[in-house]
Structure formats: structure tokens, C-alpha cells
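Let us work through a complete example step by step.
Step 1: write down the sequence.
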Amino acid sequence: MGLWVAFLAAHILVAWLGWVYPTQPMGDVVLVYQPWSASALSGGAVVGITETWVYPQPALLPMLLTQLIAWPLNALVGTTGAYLIGWAVLVTALDAVGFGVLVGRRGSVARRSAGWFWTVALVLLGPIAMYRIDAVTVPMAVIGGCWLVRRPAVAAAVLTVAAWIKIWPGALIVAAIAATRARLRILFAFLGVSAVIVVVLLLLGADRHLFGFISAQTGRGLQIESVAATPFLWMAAAGAASIDYSFEILTFQIGAPGADLVSVLLTPLMAVAGIAVLALGAVKAARGASFPRLLPPLALAIVAVLIVTNKVGSPQFQTWLIAPVILWILFDRTRSGIPAAIVLGLSALTCLVYPLTYDGLLRAELVPVLLLTARNLLVVVLLVIAVRALLRVPASRP
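Step 2: predict the structure and record it as C-alpha cells.
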């Protein structure tokens, strides 16, 4: 009972902090999610259907659902306040479902430890852990991960839906395919659910914009919070680079010689690094490595690759690390301490950067640049630790 009280209290605290912290950390919810969903409901443009969108089309569903939750509150607190409350209620409800699956009725020590980790990570990360579309996918990833052992096909279906909202849960799917003997059931479930989603989207008229969320990413520049932007931030602090706002992508990007080239190179680097880590996991599985030992470091390594080699680097990306670490605590608790501690440190540093010192970061001031540098270096350290743990997974066959 105490764990549940702490988990729900953490959501209330973090939801409230979104209203009082600087830099409007819940801005995406009311500045983009609300207008997108309102347009779809009012007969206007439907993102992903009538125009290219930065997210996969099912990401619109939780935004629409929030409109329904917020509707009774509109007259009391106004449409903006009601939508923010509705979003917080939706995320809390989804997290509660995921938390229930994780800890169960009589949670083991490992399950309770994972629950406390999730609770602390949420508080340390702050409002960004709730007021972004990524927050919807975290409990889905936790549920899917918890079911991979006993219900691999159902788990894959949940993870596939999550990946069609925000791509990152696909890392758990490919990790599971590489690590488990039930890979065919997982693969067929992924393909089947994806096929249903694609058919529905085509019937809705998506056709030309079906995979627009992929092409929309290619035009991005090097975002200031990305790992690769760290040297350029120090150049900006020295007056040798600029921090520019992209009105097309709605992000702050680096303006400096070489920044565009780095941005272009990061995508193939992500592919190569991700394939290399996945291949290492597949080799370990082929040599008889046990699924509980192999999956957590493999999943965490792939997710860390997605962050380290990403040209975007938004603060909410740190929420992606929560589910793999929860699985590590659940499947192999004795070896999960270091990655769990690092992710908690990353959560705290991320909140210190965004939203607490973000205004200073946009001016390339020393303290926020130092904080972001520490955060980015720690993500690289986490990747190295995950890969090292992957290399050390014992195999029963040479």
C-alpha cells in the first residue's frame, strides 16, 4: 500500500510542478497536442492523415482522448487548464495500469524495487516525464516487457502499438526477437498488429502521409540538447556558434560550421551502432545465453544508442530508459544497481537542465552548459556499461 501511495503522490507532485516550474514544461501539451486534436475534432486538418506529421498517426489517439477527459472541466477552468488536467489524468491512469502489472498483488522484492525505481525516476525527472507524448508509451513498454516471458505474442502486440505512438519501444521488440526462443511469435504479432494499423490508416486516407513521420525527421538540424551537440554548445559559450530557433520543427538547433554535417552523419551512425549491438545480442542468444540475463542489457544498450546517436536529444528521451531498467531489476536484480543509479542521476540532471536552467542554456551560460555536458557524458557511460554487461552475459555454448 505504501508503494502505491508513493507512486500516486509522485504523479500529483510532478503534475503540479508542471504549473510552477519555469519555461512552461507542459507547453507541448497545450501548444501542439491540444490544437492538433481540436483541429481533428472540428473537421480541420488531421495530422498524419491530411498532412505530414512528425509522429506516427496513432499518437493522435491519446491527444483526442484527453479532449474527452477534459470536456467536463472546460467550463470550470477553461479549455487550456482542462486539457492540461486531462492529460495529467490520462498519464496517471496509464501509469497506474502499468504499475499494477509490474508490482502485482503480492509483489516480489524485485517487483517492489522496480516500482520504487519508477517512482523515484518520475520525481527526479519532473514534469517532462508526464507532459510529453513519450509518457503514454512508458507504461505500455513496462506492460509489454513484463509479459514477454509468459505472454510473448500479447507483449509484442502491446509494444507494437506503443511503437506506433512513439518509435522507441520498437527497441524492446527487436531486443526480444534477438534474445528469446519465442522470436517467431513476437515477430508475427508485430507484423500482424502493424498490418492492421496500416490498413486502418489507409482506409482513413493516410496514403501519401503514411510514413511521413520518418521523412519529417530527416530535415531536422542538430538540436542543442543532443549528445553530439555538446562540443558546439561550448563553441556557443565562447561565441563561436549560435543557438537558433527552427519555426518549422519548433526546436532550438546549433548554427555552426560542421553542425549540418554531424546531423547528417548521425542517422547512419545510429543504424550501424544499433545493428552492431543487436548482432551481439543475437550471437549471445545463439550461444545459449539465458533470456533474463540477456534481454535487459540488450534492450538498454539499444535504447541508449537511440539517445546517444540522436540529433534531436529532447529531454523526454530520458523516459525511454525507465522501462529497460525496470526489466533489468525485474529479471536480474543483483546486477541492476549501477544502471539504475545512473538513470536516476540522468533524470536529476535532465530536470536541472530542462526546465530549471533552460533559459540560461539558450544563452549558452556556463552552469547549464556544464550540467548538460555532464548529462550527455553520463548517457555515453550508460551505453558503455550496458554493452559491457552484454559482453559479459554467460553463454552455455562456445
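Step 3: interpret the result. The beta strands are 242-246, 251-255.
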